[in-house]
Amino acid sequence: MANMQPLKMLKDDGLPTPEIGAWGEEKYRHVQLYASLFVKSMRSKWDMLVYLDLFAGSGRSQIRGTGRIVNASPLLILGIPEAYDKYIFCEQDMNFAKALEARCRRDSPDRNVKIIPEDANISVGKIIAEMPRHGRTRKVLGFCFLDPFQMQNLSFSTIKVLSQRFMDFLVLIPSSMDANRNEQNYVQPKNKTLDNFVGNPDWRTFWQEENRAGKSFEHFVVEEFGRSMQKLGYIDPGLKEAIMIRSNDKNLPLYRLALYSKHQLGSKFWKETKKYSDPQTGFEFK
Length: 286
Fold this sequence. Notes:
The chain is built from 12 helices and 10 strands. It has helices at residues 24-42, 73-78, 94-107, 124-130, 156-162, 175-180, 183-186, 193-198, 203-212, 217-231, 238-241, 264-275; strands spanning 19-20, 48-53, 60-63, 69-71, 86-90, 113-116, 140-146, 167-173, 243-246, 253-260. It starts with 18 loop residues before the first strand and ends in an 11-residue tail after the last helix.
């Protein structure tokens, strides 16, 4: 049995630590809880489990306006008692990648960690090559966290390549902080940002119909992304199961977290994650 606690405040270690809004802690709790359920429940069913974080940052974040420093997703997942067999972190900012490597060596020296200091979309072949091979005598399952700040940072083609392996995806969809704010730019025929993000160059035709029916652009982007995931064989959770993350100060919608799995167990774990994501709520494996 394990109990998930609120994120701890840490002392400054002198390494690069980017600022995030206070709502980032909620995001971190969700990925930590799901990753915990995933590794605990899948350990007996698969020979090897791999965790991938393709926008990994430096491993720590400072909460804007507070001075609080907390572990970000890579170090939180490394700190889960039930270890994955391998951790693959991708971070294109070289200073952040070096800081992440130093923190991984210091805090989790016994974990099998690979850091790729490159753009995940360009280096997806290297990422796949770092995963243990799946075969008749070795079943390998991955859990991939995708946390792009903007839609232009993630190409759906990267997901398409990774989906050739057995993989669950937890995706941050910048549906309000990016899509809604830039709708007038993205609908322009020459702008390929949304084409690349949702993996469908014909989305504008569907958007015209949905727009006339009164649907918001934010809702449309989430649903269009889900339809593309469905074409890859994933269960589309829809808007209902995607978590809306809001700003703490003005309660404005920012982005949605959506879980995509090919198995109903993924949906079950996600519902458990949402249930116990409150930092004051104890979480126990069952």
